[in-house]
């Protein structure tokens, strides 16, 4: 279970590097907009942006303009939001539960979202009045509520090491809840889905950014920023959990309130992201570990670094998913796992060598 | 600052871990808690530290009930060193000690030079200043315990609670930690396993099955009869010809 990665002191990244953040994000989004099945030159992108944002009136190809504005730009921005949100949720859950394997989907959110999605699309719940996203969001919320109730029932009345046992109860309740909702999803698919529907839903479960429009960005961008602000505001509280929940309490953190609030808000951010683009795995697990390796474990650095890295990683993964197989878009979850797993392995091996 | 407990009860799954415990620790005093395994020393310390709210009874800081105080205010008064607190995070010693400033910082208030000075002072006090940049997982058990104590000192507490701080340490580190604690100008409540070490406290309290069965100066409380009844051992007192101190010599278990 030891993911203590290296023995050299964490790299000192100083605050004067912070100005790079918007630049890196901007470049990632530009790359996401430019690269694709048809490559679009940068100057065309800038012209389209100028036309859209302040009506500059440059002459550009209408098809290019449509691809850039309606399709790729919104998609790249939302990919960034999802990456940042999922990475932040990973940071918070790993810090609070003191478990290196914690990730945003631990609380049953992805399982609940998929149940909600199949309930709407295949079982026909809501009779067409409910969108897939709304169904997924409701499913995620329901699963989260169930997991919290279960964790509460299992964790109450315990004695010594309240913090540790509560963390254990949350993890076990999350596993039980996820299994239950995965079983429900499988049940609905097996009972009533056609082969075509089953394939479609599998695509969605692995993460799908192809349906993204500006409306999604209008929801995803505030969610990601709210998540970032909540984490930054509580950065010292997150640090205080370094030696466990009891230690945090003796450092003056109202553990129950802070932990409940942070987990609930990260669950909300995750549910918003998952309901739009499906359950994209690996980002929330790997990015926080990789960033701990680079900037250290203090959340003043870790939180912004993880948000940035998650955003850039997912924009990059989306680019790869669009170009790696000509004429076909892979589910982005396949790419994040294919890229993320070896990258993670390299970090682990390097870490153990340095030690 | 006076820390007192008033008829504390603590029950878990029908097991009574604390049963009507009352005690008052006077300002500046070093108070030792002794008792066999499972007698409730750790539970009592957790209650005194404000980590547990007892089912019945209350804890007072001076004359103020602890449970009316925000957790942050408690942490500005009381620091607690747990028996074993570990982490997998890659943090250096200085960062671990800096956590002690948490109750004095807010989200908008930045880390100041004043905080830096307090952390340096705490590191110096436990003799860890030269290891300030070492990573946590490269430290030995004794060094980790010192860092935990330094973190507690960085809280600048009026009352310091220590749960068997000498556990798992070699004899040199045991003695140096006890000397360190003795020198601190704060009220100390310390749970101890080594009864000879407990003799150095101003007063000691004896825990037995969740009850505090005796309180007083060590020479009055620690008697051959007490050791037989509470700890189940046959022991004798020997006089040290060097400094006239009394030493416990344990003969056999009963």
TrEMBL record, chain A:
Transmembrane segments: 15-35, 76-97, 109-127, 134-154, 166-190, 258-290, 302-324, 330-349
Top-level lineage group: Bacteria
InterPro entries xrefs: ABC_BtuC-like, ABC_transptr_permease_BtuC
Organism the protein comes from: Franzmannia qiaohouensis
Subcellular location: Cell membrane
Listed CDD domains: TM_ABC_iron-siderophores_like
Pfam families, A to Z: FecCD
Entry membrane topology: Multi-pass membrane protein
Name the UniProt record assigns to this protein: Iron ABC transporter permease
Alphabetic keyword roster: Cell membrane, Membrane, Transmembrane, Transmembrane helix, Transport
Membership in a protein family: Belongs to the binding-protein-dependent transport system permease family. FecCD subfamily.
Coiled-coil parts of chain: none
From TrEMBL, chain B:
Coiled-coil spans in chain: none
Domain ABC transporter: from-to ranges: 3-234
UniProt-listed InterPro entries: AAA+_ATPase (IPR003593), ABC_transporter-like_ATP-bd (IPR003439), P-loop_NTPase (IPR027417)
Keyword Kinase: no
One GO MF term attached to the UniProt entry: ATP binding
Keywords for this protein: ATP-binding, Nucleotide-binding
Record's protein name: ABC transporter ATP-binding protein
The species this protein was found in: Franzmannia qiaohouensis
């Amino acid at each position: 279970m030891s993911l203590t990665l290296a023995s050299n002191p964490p790299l000192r990244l100083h605050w004067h590097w912070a100005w790079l953040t918007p630049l890196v994000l901007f470049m990632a989004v530009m790359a996401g907009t430019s690269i694709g099945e048809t490559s679009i030159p940068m100057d065309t992108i800038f012209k389209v942006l100028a036309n859209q944002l302040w009506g500059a009136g440059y002459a550009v190809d209408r098809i290019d303009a449509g691809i850039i504005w309606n399709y790729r730009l919104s998609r790249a921005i939302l990919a960034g939001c999802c990456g940042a949100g999922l990475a932040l949720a990973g940071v918070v859950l790993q810090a609070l539960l003191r478990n290196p394997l914690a990730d945003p989907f631990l609380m049953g959110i992805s399982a609940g979202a998929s149940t909600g999605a199949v309930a709407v699309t295949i079982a026909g719940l809501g009779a067409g009045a409910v969108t897939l996203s709304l169904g997924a969001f409701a499913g995620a919320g329901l699963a989260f509520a169930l997991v919290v109730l279960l964790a509460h029932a299992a964790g109450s009345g315990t004695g010594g090491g309240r913090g540790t046992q509560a963390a254990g109860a949350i993890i076990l309740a999350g596993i039980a809840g996820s299994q239950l909702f995965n079983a429900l999803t499988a049940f609905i698919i097996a009972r009533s889905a056609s082969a075509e529907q089953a394939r479609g839903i599998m695509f969605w479960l692995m993460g799908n950014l192809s349906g993204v429009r500006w409306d999604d960005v209008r929801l995803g961008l505030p969610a990601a920023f709210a998540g970032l602000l909540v984490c930054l505001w509580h950065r010292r509280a997150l640090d205080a959990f370094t030696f466990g929940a009891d230690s945090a309490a003796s450092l003056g953190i109202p553990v129950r309130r802070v932990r409940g609030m942070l987990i609930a808000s990260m669950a909300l951010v995750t549910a918003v992201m998952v309901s739009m683009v499906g359950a994209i795995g690996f980002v929330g697990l790997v990015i926080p570990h990789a960033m701990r390796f680079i900037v250290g474990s203090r959340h003043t650095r870790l939180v912004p670094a993880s948000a940035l890295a998650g955003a850039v990683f997912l924009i990059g993964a989306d680019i790869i998913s669009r170009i790696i197989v000509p004429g076909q878009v892979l589910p982005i979850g396949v790419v994040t796992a294919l890229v993320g797993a070896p990258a993670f392995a390299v970090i682990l091996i390097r870490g153990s060598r340095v030690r | 600052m006076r820390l007192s407990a008033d008829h504390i009860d603590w029950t878990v799954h029908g097991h009574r871990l604390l049963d009507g415990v009352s005690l008052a620790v006077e300002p500046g005093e070093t108070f030792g808690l002794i008792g066999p395994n499972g007698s409730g020393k750790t539970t009592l310390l957790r209650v005194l530290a404000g980590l547990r709210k007892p089912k019945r009874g209350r804890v007072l800081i001076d004359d103020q009930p602890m449970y009316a105080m925000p957790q942050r205010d408690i942490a500005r008064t009381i620091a607690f060193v747990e028996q074993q607190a570990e982490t997998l995070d890659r943090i250096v010693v200085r960062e671990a000690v800096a956590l002690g400033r948490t109750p004095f910082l807010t989200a908008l208030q930045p880390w100041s030079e004043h905080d830096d000075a307090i952390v340096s002072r705490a590191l110096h006090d436990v003799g860890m200043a030269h290891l300030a940049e070492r990573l946590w997982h490269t430290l030995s058990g004794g060094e980790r315990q010192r860092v935990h104590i330094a973190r507690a000192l960085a809280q600048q507490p009026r009352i310091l609670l220590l749960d068997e701080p000498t556990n798992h340490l070699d004899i040199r580190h045991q003695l140096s930690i006890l000397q360190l604690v003795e020198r601190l100008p704060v009220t100390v409540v310390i749970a101890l396993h080594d009864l000879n070490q407990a003799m150095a406290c101003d007063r000691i309290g004896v825990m037995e099955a969740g009850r505090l069965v005796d309180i007083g100066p060590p020479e009055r409380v620690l008697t051959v009869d007490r050791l037989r009844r509470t700890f189940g051992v046959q022991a004798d007192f020997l006089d040290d010809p060097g400094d006239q101190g009394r030493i416990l010599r344990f003969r056999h278990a009963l």
